[in-house]
Every structure is written in structure tokens, then in C-alpha cells.
Amino acid sequence: MTTMFWILWFFIAFVVVLVAFTLRKESEDMPRRDILRAVESTGKMGVAERSFLWVFSWLDTRFRLQDYWNMSKGAYYNMHRQMPLTHAEKYKLRIIWYWYPLYCLGGISFLSFIILVITGTVLGIYYVPGGEGDPAPAYASMQYIMTELPFGYILRAVHHWATHFMVASVFLHMCRVYFTGAYRNPRELNWLIGVALMALTIVFGYSGYLLPWDSLAYGAAVIGINLANSSPLVGKYVATLLFGGSSLTPRTVTRMYFIHVFILPVIVTTLIIIHLFIVWVQGIAEPH
Ligand code: HEM
Questions:
Q1: Are 180 and 287 spatial neighbours (Cβ–Cβ below 8 Å)?
Q2: DSSP 86-97
Q3: Residue 25's pLDDT is what?
Q4: CA 209/CA 256 separation, integer angstroms
């Protein structure tokens, strides 16, 4: 209560100082004086125009509206200078080729990823990453989300279906890039980043699949750890790194959780930013 009291008073004091600072007397050298003098000297303006200029100059001297407006206009034009013409614009085509909607698949992958991050963040508030006990806390928290949490089952369903959309659209996007020959010079590096993104998207899906720690997840975990263990020479280490041991333990689900909510999001977000930055710099390839 006392904390709230002090926060409130600090906030009021802050607002008072801010208002006092804003309304302080203007000095003679402020550009607003010049604007107002110019307004006065024309003498032909109506009340509406004068009032508008008065308000605008008042705001402009305080918030540098014109400077920021010009800066953003400059940034906008610079950005668009780099945007190449589309195939349809370049060849003045009147029709949209049937494959053009397929150029949306990268965007759909990105949108699915954003939806996954948002729904996943909310699910993470209620999910408990523990494998110890019967039922395991992970399983019990998933049941709580499904049966008791308001809208919980919808949240989980959206996360589930956005995953399916992402895996499908990333794969189809890769097919589009391949069949239009867009992987060629100078876009080889973006193709390789894309290959990493494809693999990481699948690992993302797999690690999430294990989190409910139900029999389906357990079955998938058995297959995964057997695969990891059978890697030549380093099998035991790979299994320990990914599954928290060379056989399944309650630690496995905690390890998967960490991979799913920290390691993969950091890597995938970074790669997507680089991927999209390269697309922005290089533009979209002409279909060959
Ligand atoms: C998380 C996954 C991915 C996202 C969010 C993503 C996003 C995008 C976006 C928005 C574009 C712009 C053009 C378009 O949408 O078609 C693009 C282009 C491109 N992507 Fe992806 N992508 C992903 C995965 C991949 C994969 C798996 C590959 C290939 C292995 C790939 C290779 C490329 C290449 C080479 C381009 C340039 C295409 C061109 O210039 O026509 N991307 N990506």
C-alpha cells in the first residue's frame, strides 16, 4: 500500500515537472517567434489558418515535429530506393502469373512464427517443465491448461496449428525458391541460412511435441534418444546434450523446455532477422 502511495506521488510530481517544463516562458531566440512573426506579417490569413499555425509552431518548438517528419521521410525514400521493381512492374505485365501468390510463403512462415512466439509466451506462464512424479508436473500443467484455464485449450490449439502452418509454409517456401531458381548467385548465402531455418523449424516442432510429457511425447522421446545414441562415436554426448542423459529421465522434459523456449527462439529469431535483411538488401529474384 505504502509503495503504491509513493509511486502515485512520484508520478504526480513527474507530471507537474513535465507540464511546468513544457509551459516555461519561451526565449526570444526560439524558432517559434520567427514563425509567428511571419504569420503576423502576411496579414491575409483567416482565424483557422492562424490558429493552426499557432498550435503547430507551439508543438514544433517543443517536439521538433518537422525535424522528425523530414527524417522519417528521408528514411522512407532511402528504403524504397533499394526496393527493386517487381517482375510485373518491370515488364509492364497486366496479368498476375499463377505462381505469384507463392511469393507469400516466406511471409506466411514469418507470420506463423510471430503467432507462435505470442501464444507460446502465454502458454509458458502456465506450463511447468518438470518430469518427476506421477503424473509429472509437465503433464498435470498441460491438463490444467486444457480443462481449467479459461481459453487455455484455444491457446494450445492455436499454438499447435500455427506450428503445422509454419512447418508446411517453410517447406513450400523452400520449394518456391528452388523452382524459381532464386537460390542462385547472389542469393546462395540466404539459401544456406534458409536450410538452417528449415532444420531448426523441425527441431522446434519436435522439442515442443515432447513438452506435454504424455504417452505420445514419451514415444517420440524414445525414438529421438535412440537416434541420438546411435550417432557414430559421439552418440552418448549428443544424447546427454539434447535429452539430459543417455536414457530418458525426468530431466529430459526440463532440457527440452530450455531448448524450446530459450535456445531455439534466440537462434531462429536471429537467423530470420538476417534472412529478411538480406532479402531487403538484395530484393526478390526475377523468376528464371
Ligand atoms: C523461418 C523460416 C523462413 C522465413 C520466415 C523466411 C522468410 C522469407 C521471406 C519473407 C522472403 C521474401 C520472399 C518470399 O516471401 O518468398 C524470403 C526469401 C528467400 N528465402 Fe526464406 N524464409 C524462411 C525459410 C527459408 C528456407 C527454408 C529457405 C531455403 C532453404 C529460404 C530461402 C530463401 C531465399 C533464397 C530467398 C530469396 C528468394 C528470392 O529472392 O526470390 N528461406 N524468405
A1: yes
A2: PHHHHTT-SSPP
A3: 61
A4: 9
What is the pTM assigned to this prediction?
0.73
Average pLDDT, the chain: 89
Q: Residue 273 Cα, ligand 1 centroid: separation in angstroms?
A: 11
Query: Ligand 1 centroid vs 168 CA: distance in angstroms?
Result: 13
Q: Are 126 and 144 in contact (CB under 8 A)?
A: yes
Cβ(129)–Cβ(211) below 8 Å:
yes
Reported as a single tens digit per residue, the pLDDT across 118-144 is 999 999 999 999 999 889 999 999 999
- Ligand 1 site: residues with CB under 6 angstroms? 103, 105-107, 109-110, 113, 170, 173-174, 177, 182-183, 187, 190-191, 194-195, 197-198, 201, 272, 275-276, 279, 284-285
With a pLDDT cut of 70, the percent of the chain lying above it is 86
